[in-house]
Specification:
The structure holds two protein chains of two kinds. By secondary structure, chain A is an all-beta fold. Chain A contains no helices and eleven strands. Chain B is mostly beta strands. Chain B has strands spanning about 5, 10-15, 20-25, 30-40, 45-50, 55-60, 60-65, 70-75, 85-95, 95-100, 105-110. Classes of the chains: A mainly beta, B mainly beta. The interface between A and B is medium-sized, with 25 and 25 residues.
Chain lengths: ~120, ~110
């Protein structure tokens, strides 16, 4: 099992450009999450999907959109990138919502720089 | 609003020492607490998950405890090794979200 995979690993964008970060999991998990990690701020939840067909905002959703394409895949889109979105982005999944007591498993991250 | 704090922010110890990392949270109404390890430039690796009904969990040289009433968790690392050098993050599960602390950066020198 590959676990949680993310593409791309690195990306440099110019301000105003758009891009989609891809995430896939092969553990048959119901819930998937997108986080960003910034120095001194820890990891913050951007969006999550408790189950296929549902998505909800997290702590820092502005400037992002998500799509739960199917049970395996959850993408994060930046429509018009801004320098404030320079960060490391992590995707995670869990069997069902974290309130149930199930562990979250993380992908390797995408390092995004917006110039 | 749930806030998670980790102290110390950084720690440097000689190999072989037993050490304790601390995590505190402001809202005791959590479902569970998870400890992670993050190596530089890498993703997060789950170390231990403690459910709210449990007091502790053990995995090898790691032992994590949870005291919900006082809003605290500790991660105990026995006989530390240079390979333990990493950033350790705790996160509390609130409803369907994880709230993270900012981590403790650990360096174990030979």
């Amino acid at each position: 099992n590959a676990g949680v995979t993310q593409t791309p690993k690195f990306q440099v964008l110019k301000t105003g450009q758009s891009m989609t970060l891809q995430c896939a999991q092969d553990m048959n998990h119901n819930s998937m999450y997108w986080y960003r990690q910034d120095p001194g701020m820890g990891l913050r939840l951007i969006y999550y999907s408790a189950s296929e067909g549902t998505t909800d905002k997290g702590e820092v959703p502005n400037g992002y959109n998500v799509s739960r394409l199917n049970k395996r895949e959850f993408s994060l889109r930046l429509e018009s990138a801004a320098p404030s979105q320079t960060s490391v982005y992590f995707c995670a999944s869990s069997e069902i919502g974290s309130g149930s007591g199930y562990e979250q498993y993380f992908g390797p991250g995408t390092r995004l720089t917006v110039t | 609003k749930q806030e998670v704090t980790q102290i110390p922010a950084a720690l440097s110890v000689p190999e072989g020492e037993n050490l304790v990392l601390n995590c505190s949270f402001t809202d005791s109404a959590i479902y569970n607490l998870q400890w992670f390890r993050q190596d530089p430039g890498k993703g997060l690796t789950s170390l231990l998950l403690i459910q709210s009904s449990q007091r502790e969990q053990t995995s090898g040289r790691l032992n994590a405890s949870l005291d919900k009433s006082s809003g605290r968790s500790t991660l105990y690392i026995a006989a530390s090794q240079p390979g333990d050098s990493a950033t350790y993050l705790c996160a509390v599960h609130n409803t369907d979200k994880l709230i993270f602390g900012t981590g403790t950066r650990l360096q174990v020198f030979p």
